[in-house]
Specification:
Rossmann fold, transmembrane, 597 residues, spermidine synthase activity, membrane, eight-stranded mixed beta sheet, alpha/beta, Spermidine synthase, SAM-dependent_MTases_sf
Length: 597
């Protein structure tokens, strides 16, 4: 008996909906992996540029080779979505694993190349989607099946939109109705143009969903499982609408694309969809488990092998940064990085250490008490605090009784820091200080809009570990700071050692010098950290100004300055160092040497 021809039950609206979903996933994958590469390898501009380039070149290669799949578009589309649901999360975990390995520097290019294989594979598979969906859409249009009520509604909407846009296009382009074609503008839109339109729309929505929902709400790691789940759902929905209609048996209702040779693949699709769905539903625990595995090993790599045990206690992601709290324990092997303490709690913002128990107090005393010793403890002293979202610097400022304008871009972090048990012990409720004004705003934007001048500007910001921080270490930023100083005003900031970060130091000082801050006063914070009766140098700071200021003479009598007054009597203003052949860092012409690598 000759089998009856196969008539798929899917419709053009369904194919357009699937186009929208898979495009959403593909473009969101691009952003997810770009951010992942930034976390693991650093340098957002570099990683985003490489990821976009590799993704689109792979997308083009997949599209170029897609003609070989169009003889069986239904089966191959199902396979593509299943493969994507498998490859994306496994590729994501592979990159994380590579980030935890210790290997010689000579192998870095090889590791980097292997790490890019997932995004190349995702781009290659995604390149098949659009041609396959176009072929399917054309084949459905060729069948004379009466449209459903939903299809008719979509058709009417498409027709109205087509007419409206036709008026606009007609004013700028030559438009002529094709002979022998229906008068309905919707019928004149080719299957390729319609699918391409939904593809672009899905890409836009995917970008918006990732930026404004997935990344800030569930975090980077769960996002990849959510997207893989959508790919699996798309495959299963498509399969469920592709059954034979001439043989209404239970077997015939199973997805036709897998056929007799693809039942294992269909089982894999069900398993992967269920697994990624479970991971998406349990986004919090899954994200914490994977991130703890990664960051614990990443932090351990900063020390000699076997010297430090790291245990992540909490992680969360805001719109602007990743926050990690962890305990680090010295094992007794190698040098102790914090002068005798065996275990301490620390907090990181992205890859930069923000706070550790052994030096939290001395750091903020050095940042705040030293420059404030040059001014009266009264509300007549105006202070601008940039950063400091943990409120610890504000605690020191309220003890001086000065007026404070506080600017930090991350309102979510500031809100959480108010009640975080670890941070609360260092800010003592300073967010309630009556003489401060806090703005959740970009510091650059605030400086451009404000006309206020300050006696002291405190920079309590993350180190220059990523391109995202480059603007805060630019000529333009420091020029703005200089313009907001009073006649005797100073800028206080912590700085890196010239012995450990020579490239950063030379680029940094050439940058601030070009900004007009030609005088500097380097100093340290001091503390007897290990309680052995001897004082150690802890953090390195620098005062910056357009010209030399008064010497440090702590007349306002804070306990810290009284205890270490003799340490600061030798601090002198010197010319800001300049280095030949080193380009300053600018917003529009960045110098990557200023990054800490």
């Amino acid at each position: 008996m000759t089998p009856r021809p196969h008539h798929p039950r899917h419709s053009v609206p369904l194919l357009h909906a699937l186009t929208f979903i898979v495009a959403l996933c593909s473009f969101a994958y691009e952003l997810v992996f770009a951010e992942l590469y930034t976390v693991v390898f650093g340098g957002s501009v570099t990683q985003y540029g490489l990821t976009i380039g590799l993704f689109f070149s792979s997308l083009g290669l997949g599209s170029f080779l897609s003609g070989r799949l169009e003889t069986d578009p239904e089966s191959n589309f199902f396979r593509v979505e299943t493969y994507l649901a498998v490859v994306a999360p496994l590729g994501f975990l592979l990159v994380i694993l590579l980030g935890t390995l210790r290997y010689p520097a000579a192998y870095a290019p090889l590791v980097g190349a292997i790490a890019r294989l997932p995004i190349v594979t995702i781009g290659f598979l995604s390149g098949f989607e659009l041609p396959l969906l176009t072929t399917l859409s054309e084949s459905v249009r060729d069948t004379a099946r009466p449209p459903s009520s939903i299809a008719r509604g979509v058709r009417r909407l498409t027709s109205h939109l087509n007419r409206a846009f036709g008026v606009v296009l007609g004013a700028a382009f030559s438009i002529k109705r094709r002979e022998g074609k229906p008068s309905d503008p919707a019928d004149e839109t080719s299957a390729y143009a319609a699918v391409l339109g939904f593809d672009y729309l899905g890409g836009l929505v995917g970008s918006l969903v990732y930026v404004f929902f997935l990344y800030p709400a569930v975090g980077l790691i769960p996002s990849v499982f959510v997207l893989a789940f959508l790919n699996g759902v798309a495959a299963l929905i498509f399969a469920s609408t592709t059954a034979n209609t001439h043989r209404p048996t239970l077997r015939s209702r199973l997805p036709q694309p897998v056929g007799s040779t693809g039942k294992a693949l269909f089982a894999v699709c069900l398993l992967v969809t269920a697994s990624t769905g479970a991971a998406a539903v349990n986004a919090g625990p899954v994200g914490e488990d994977v991130s703890e595995y990664y960051f614990e090993r990443e932090f351990e790599l900063e020390y000699a092998p076997g010297a430090m045990d790291v245990a992540v206690t909490d992680t969360w992601t805001t719109r602007y940064q990743r926050v990690t709290e962890y305990n680090r324990t010295w094992t007794g092997s190698g040098d102790n990085p914090y002068f005798g303490a065996t275990t301490e709690h620390c907090l990181r913002l992205d890859s930069a250490v923000q706070l550790c128990e052994s030096w939290a107090d001395s750091y903020h005393q050095g940042l705040v008490d030293v420059p404030l010793s040059m001014f009266e403890n009264s509300t007549d002293t105006k202070v601008l605090l940039i950063g400091g979202g943990d409120w610890a610097a504000m605690d020191r400022l309220q003890r001086h009784g000065v007026s404070v304008d506080h600017v930090d871009i991350d309102g979510e972090f500031m809100q959480r820091a108010k009640t975080d048990p670890f941070l609360a012990q260092y800010h003592d409720g300073a967010y309630r200080y009556e003489n401060k004004s806090t703005r959740v705003q970009d510091a650059f934007q605030y400086l451009e809009q404000s006309e206020q001048r300050y006696d002291v500007i405190l920079l309590d910001i993350p180190g220059a570990t990523d391109d995202d921080q480059l603007p805060l270490y630019s000529v333009e930023f420091y020029s703005q700071l200089r313009q907001h100083l009073t006649a005797d005003g100073v800028i206080a900031t912590w700085t890196y050692s010239r012995y450990s970060y020579a490239q950063h130091r030379t680029a940094y000082y050439n940058t601030v010098h070009k900004a007009g801050l030609t005088s500097a006063a380097p100093y340290f914070a001091w503390e007897d950290i290990d309680a052995d009766g001897e004082t150690e140098r802890v953090e390195r700071f620098t005062l910056l100004a357009p010209a030399p200021r008064d010497s440090l003479s702590p007349h306002n009598g804070t306990a810290y300055m009284n205890r270490y007054q003799h340490r600061y009597q030798a601090v002198e203003w010197v010319d800001t160092p300049r280095y030949a052949g080193v380009r300053p860092n600018s917003v529009f012409h960045p110098n990557y040497d200023i990054l800490i690598k």
